[in-house]
């Protein structure tokens, strides 16, 4: 690959298993700032490998989220069981633009007010203590901190906010894992979408019959107020809120624990009080983003960019892993995990109109969970060699499938 390539050059095929996401991004970044890539089933898209360029594109009016602007979807080239279709197809806040996006986002952000997030602190703290007690009660030997700590923390928090009954958590978790995998077969993709939509529709029906103090009930009330929210928009918005609402925090906490256990000198600095735990959270978000390549945005017109042209109707991945370790933005130490880094500004929660509404809640959970975990288990260590940890089979969700630790 070289900087003289044209739009006719063969695209770089992304590894659907996410086996070496950071290594793959490094190779793309070393090649050029704007790269044409190949997604599953030979579907082409674009990745920008520079923090500066991604930040510009996230606010560029020529870049939109509504899939009606994607040429390949319009002409039927994208198969029904395509692994990423469940990020593209749902109507809702994440796939809306302009007035529709502002309308939907206004309704959702009412549920994520600073006051409501502040009110979540005590329940999050109580949940963290309960989960730490459960970890302490496990038999001697390795325990999976992802499955037994990070997941139930994230799932209960978003579940309580949305109003999802606890007995449905594990089913939603399994379906979310299937949805965020970029290596899923077409039959599973179709089945996952059908099951998720059916579960959410049933949950909405229950809340409509018996409203509660939760986001679903609030959005139903908004829908029935002058029909401000269609049923399709309601289900689509809830789908992505549920998946992103627990998946981002789950990966963030997991990635932070792994980073600290593989960088003991950084853990020592934070535990000594030299730096706040928020430094760990922000550096993890930069260095090992919970989201790899987020689908999808589309060019509304031709966009010349750094020697390439993103054509009208082309798809664009928001590559947060690429931006997070860009040496143009973070200097020669961009690849290093450094909790004392002066410039920790990142794009992991997005930028512009689609900035993540749940960012403050994700930070609250991580900044509560990490100090509590390392205080309760000061001798915490990895139970396996770092190179034996296996990534999730995805270039969307960026983390490891399990994180076995010894409690010391």
UniProtKB/TrEMBL annotation:
It comes from the Bacteria. One of its GO terms (molecular function) is monooxygenase activity. The keyword Cell inner membrane does not apply. SUPFAM superfamilies: Cytochrome P450 (SSF48264). Keywords: Heme, Iron, Metal-binding, Monooxygenase, Oxidoreductase. PANTHER family: CYTOCHROME P450 YJIB-RELATED, P450, PUTATIVE (EUROFUNG)-RELATED. Belongs to the cytochrome P450 family. This is Cytochrome P450. It comes from Streptomyces mobaraensis.
